[in-house]
Design a protein that fits this description.
Oligomer: heterodimer
Radius of gyration of chain A: 24 Å
Helix content of chain A: 25-40%
Largest interface: A-B, 65 and 71 residues
Distance between the termini of chain A: 47 Å
Strand content of chain A: 15-25%
Distance between the termini of chain B: 56 Å
CATH superfamily of the largest domain in chain B: Pyruvate-ferredoxin oxidoreductase, PFOR, domain III
Number of strands of chain A: 12
CATH class of the largest domain in chain B: Alpha Beta
Largest sheet of chain B: 7 strands, mixed
CATH topology of the largest domain in chain B: Pyruvate-ferredoxin Oxidoreductase, domain 3
Strand order of the largest sheet of chain B: 11-10-12-13-15-14-21
CATH topology of the largest domain in chain A: Rossmann fold
CATH architecture of the largest domain in chain B: 3-Layer(aba) Sandwich
CATH architecture of the largest domain in chain A: 3-Layer(aba) Sandwich
Radius of gyration of chain B: 27 Å
Number of domains of chain A: 2
Chain lengths: ~325, ~650
């Protein structure tokens, strides 16, 4: 007969999750799609953090990137175009014990779901957000997105995109209760992982914009940055991301940036060349909505019954004979 | 200013008690004043029932006065039904017909189930709000009017002239107009009579209808329970002043006999009833976005939901509210989202997701006039077909409609249970009429069975499938995050039993079949609704939702006249219970009565090939292959029993 301590130990050994424990199926993204790099980084994070798969939920919208939850062997919620944030908020509110990730794209987040995105920043619920930004609609085949560069020719902009793109990082920094904003790129996997890990470890709404390449429709868009490391600006700080010596040899353009400095974060975010990579802003003191709304105690059926009867009392007309004439009062 | 009713220009005979009684029966105009004042303790005319309206500018408190009057009468043991008269704007111009705000209270010696026909007595704070009620024919012939007289001497000559014009018009018509110095009297007690005039009127009404002043004092204390003691005392003073003034100066005195209920009753409007239902259902999350006329449910819940561990989430929009509720439901107990027409339209895609992914969800739609922004504060039953068929693709969901205020309470509990049993969406339809109407109903006795069980967190057997549809019932066990071995990716795409995206023809056929079968499984448990009246006859009237009381009252009146008519009221609209077809087949004619649009067959270009029927009529015609007729209105008002009875008579005579 095993003691409960032994069982506990066995269970611990049992739950030593490997990378494969988080993998599900073969991703059906294009070869060279940045989504693959993000998936690898996230699976590594789950393994490193030993997240119990049954306690982990990936919520997505619709789009190429939103297929992500299908490739994770965790709970997944592949819902509606643009609506990942409110679904994730509902989950987190009722289940703070779950690790909630949101996977969204530039169309999903910055176009059809923008209202939810702005308010998700404001709610500041504890979840990790991966915004896959390839600057194009891929799944619906080559239409300009809100983050497409001005002048981009696509199926809906044959003479070139008319408008300046939206800057997702700046938008985040414009919301008063923003608590974590970072930018990563798919072609520096080491930093991609470290930035997602930093986001995961932040308690609050951790937004990571991942600049990624679409090999199908925008294969060359980021070539100037991919091919010239000097056009990248790596942000490091003792309280942020540390950059390895190996990486530093390639990416020499770096800045010590304190993630608490919101004004500097805004300046960095506003420049797209050189392209910043790292944690731009973090505020550990921003309260989370789920903490503000948490019920003060668990409620048993008899407590619900008592509370309900107190409500009935407010509206009750009692029969003439005896104030306690109704058995309802005793419930 | 004269403290007593003003002498009418066209002199009339002096008031006598019997004439007040006549006025109640609406036979003849009654003189509007007597001089000198009648002594206190004048005998009261006994009435079976009366419909009383109190109307004012928005913000002058007529609604509060009406609700209080209804509550006091209910405490006395009278049957009551209150209807709010609501302006669509928050600060409409003063003294405007569009700004009329107030309450209609039907007080009876027996239980009442609807707002009735036209008003017998109206208290108006100015002549314009009064005129608005006259213009829509809400006043019965001979109606007693108690009108604030201060406008007669208003410094603005236009206002004074307008007042005199309306006064003369109505006095010359079939009404008994009394001029009441409300403001003059109130100024004796408070500096700003705009706040407090309503309590003076309440006191007056208590005198007119012989209601217990002590019960009224208690009601006033209850209303202002959260206010300072000074405010409570001022309002009680005004109440007493109104009572005393009416006792000393008015010749109208009625009494509507009452019988106290043996069981405790609760008096709430339909929206509070819905809110109580949410508390009692065990649901813990209500996600909403403000919309009229649904919002007051959330006001109430925001105040008290935390007492049972629940919370109201005010989302950034209607879509987010529904998605938030779906997220909360997916990860635990069933959640609810509460809205009205436009919000319900916005939620359709998310509702489809819950149907597709088989997530329990309760959606309450407090219907209002549509389409578009329509009539935000007014009633219509225009969303039935939309609720049944409003998704793209095949989105089978359960649709139930509350027929009474009591029903609002139990419907939510039932909806939650069905949603969790069948893992689907349950739409609860109520409307603006139920939302704001008040009627006592037996105090519910709490049962733990109402509550939702805690979210299942037990391990799923290895290899179990997240959509392992039963071949007969379509049901599958729901996997909830946190359950070991239950990991899968839920998707709104077509999926197989493993929840894998699947475009194969056979798999989509199977998934769609399974979701559809769940409605049939529920349908097998439903009982045929009872017939009101005889089981067979010349005509059956079929209704749904808030019209139940008015339809049944119309049927009662016609049956008393010897007509062979019955009615059937449906609570489950999708699926519908078995046996309805049998009931229909036992009547020569069948007609639905609804508060929505139908083409009039007598219109010049309308014929059987282009007539658009009322919503339930469409459903019944399609299901039972019977030539079912319909009568409906979209006037933004509750259907009146008199109008329904008239429509039935016309159809029975074959003139429809």
């Amino acid at each position: 007969m095993t003691t409960s301590a032994t069982r506990c130990l066995l269970r611990t050994l049992d739950e030593n999750y490997a990378l494969e424990d988080y993998q599900s199926g073969v991703p059906r993204w294009c070869i060279g799609c940045g989504d693959n790099a993000i998936l690898a980084a996230v699976q590594r994070l789950c393994r490193d953090e030993q997240l119990p798969p049954e306690k982990t939920v990936f919520v997505s919208g619709i789009g190429c990137s939103s297929r992500f939850p299908h490739y994770m062997h965790t709970y997944g919620f592949h819902g509606l175009h643009g609506r990942a944030f409110p679904v994730a908020e509902g989950i987190k509110l009722k289940r703070p014990d779950l690790h909630v990730f949101v996977v969204t794209g530039d169309g999903d987040c910055c176009s059809i779901g923008t209202a939810h995105w702005i308010h998700a920043i404001r709610y500041n619920m504890n979840m990790t957000v991966l915004m896959h930004d390839n600057g194009i609609y891929g799944l619906t085949k080559n239409q300009a997105s809100p983050t497409s560069p001005q002048g981009l020719k696509s199926n809906t902009t044959p003479r070139g995109a008319h408008l300046e793109p939206i800057n997702p990082v700046s938008v985040n920094l414009g919301i008063r209760n923003v608590s974590f904003v970072a930018q990563a790129v798919d072609w520096i996997p080491e930093l991609l992982h470290d930035i997602i890990a930093a986001a995961y470890h932040h308690k609050g709404f951790s937004f990571v914009r991942v600049v990624q390449r679409c090999p199908e429709y925008l294969p060359d868009r980021y070539d100037p940055w991919v091919k010239n490391p000097d056009r990248m600006l790596l942000l490091s700080h003792a309280d942020g991301i540390q950059i390895s010596p190996e990486l530093s040899r390639v990416y020499r353009h770096q800045e010590k940036h304190d993630p608490a400095d919101r004004n500097r974060a805004r300046e960095i975010a506003s420049v797209s060349d050189p392209m910043p990579v790292g944690v731009l802003y973090r505020n550990r003191n921003m309260p989370c909505y789920e903490d503000l709304r948490e019920p003060d105690k668990p409620y048993t059926p008899s407590m619900v019954g008592a509370a309900l009867n107190r409500e009935f009392d407010k509206f009750t007309i009692w029969p003439e004979n005896g104030e306690d004439g109704g058995a309802g009062k005793r419930g | 200013m004269n403290a007593r009713p003003r002498e009418n220009k066209s002199s009339r005979p002096e008031a006598k008690q019997s004439q007040a009684g006549k006025a109640a029966q609406n036979r003849a105009p009654t003189p509007r004043r007597k001089d000198p004042p009648s002594p206190k303790g004048k005998p009261a005319v006994i009435l079976d029932e009366h419909i009383v309206e109190i109307v004012s500018d928005s913000g002058e408190g007529a609604q509060r006065c009406g609700q209080a009057f209804g509550s006091i009468a209910a405490r006395m043991g009278n049957g009551i039904w209150t209807v709010e008269i609501i302006p669509a704007e928050i600060q409409p111009p003063a003294r405007s017909m569009a700004g009329t705000s107030g309450n209609r209270v039907r007080v009876s010696s027996h239980r009442v189930t609807n707002g009735g026909d036209e008003a017998n007595l109206v208290v108006a704070f100015n002549e314009q709000v009064l005129l608005s009620r006259v213009r829509v024919n809400e006043l019965k012939r001979g109606c007693i009017i108690l009108l604030e007289e201060k406008w007669r001497s208003d410094p603005d000559p236009d206002i004074a002239a307008s007042y005199v014009q309306v006064f003369d018009e109505l006095s010359a018509g079939d009404f008994s107009v009394y001029e009441i110095p409300m403001e003059f009297e109130c100024l004796k007690y408070v500096a700003d009579p705009r706040r407090g005039k309503n309590m003076f009127v309440l006191g007056m009404l208590c005198s007119i209808y012989s209601l217990d002043l002590e019960a009224a004092r208690q009601q006033v204390s209850f209303i202002f329970a959260k206010k300072k003691d000074k405010i409570v005392q001022d309002n009680i003073k005004l109440l007493e002043a109104g009572h005393e003034w009416a006792e000393g100066n008015l010749d109208i005195k009625f009494r509507i006999p009452s019988t106290k209920a043996q069981e405790p009753q609760i008096v709430v409007n339909g929206n509070i009833s819905l809110g109580l239902g949410v508390l009692a259902s065990g649901m813990e999350v209500c996600a909403m976005y403000p919309i009229t006329p649904a919002t007051s449910v959330s006001h109430y819940l925001s105040d008290v939901f935390r007492n049972v561990g629940g919370m109201v989430h005010q989302a950034e929009d209607e879509i987010a509210a529904c998605a938030f509720a779906i997220g909360a439901s997916y990860a635990g107990k069933c959640a609810v989202t509460i809205t009205s027409g436009p919000g319900f339209a916005l939620k359709q895609e998310t509702i489809g997701l819950a149907v597709m992914a088989e997530i329990p969800l309760v959606v309450v739609n407090v219907q209002r006039g549509g389409p578009s922004t329509g009539l935000p504060t007014k009633v219509e039953q225009g969303d039935l077909l939309f609720a049944c068929f409003g998704g793209h693709g095949d989105t089978p969901k359960v649709v139930i409609a509350a027929a009474t205020i009591e029903d609002c309470f139990y419907s939510v509990i039932t909806a939650r249970k069905i949603a969790e049993t069948f893992n689907t969406v349950v739409v609860v339809l109520t409307d603006a009429s139920l939302a704001t109407a008040q009627q006592p109903f037996p105090r519910p006795r709490f049962s733990e069975e109402w509550l939702s069980p805690p979210a299942d967190q037990s391990a799923i057997p290895e290899g179990a499938k997240p959509y392992d549809w039963d071949d007969t019932t379509g049901l599958a066990r729901r996997f909830i995050p946190g359950q070991p071995n239950g990991m899968h990716c839920l998707t709104g795409l077509a999926h197989d039993r493993m929840s894998r995206v699947a475009y194969d023809p056979a798999i989509n056929q199977e998934g769609t079949r399974s979701r559809s079968l769940k409605l049939a499984s529920l349908q097998k448990t439903l009982k045929t609704p009872p017939v009101f009246g005889d089981e067979e006859g010349d005509m059956l009237v079929v209704g749904w939702g808030s019209t139940k009381g008015a339809i049944e009252e119309a049927i009662e009146r016609l049956r008393a006249e010897g007509l062979s008519v019955s009615s059937l009221h449906l609570r489950f609209l999708q699926p519908m219970a078995s046996g309805i077809g049998d009931v229909i087949s036992r009547f020569n004619k069948v007609m639905t009565v609804e508060n929505n649009w139908s083409d009039d067959i007598n219109d010049e270009i309308i014929d059987e090939e282009n007539r658009r029927y009322s919503e339930l009529a469409w459903l019944l015609r399609a299901r039972y292959l019977v030539d079912i007729d319909c009568w409906s209105e979209v006037k933004g008002q509750s259907l009146k029993p008199g109008a329904i009875a008239h429509a039935i008579r016309v159809r029975l005579e074959g003139k429809g």
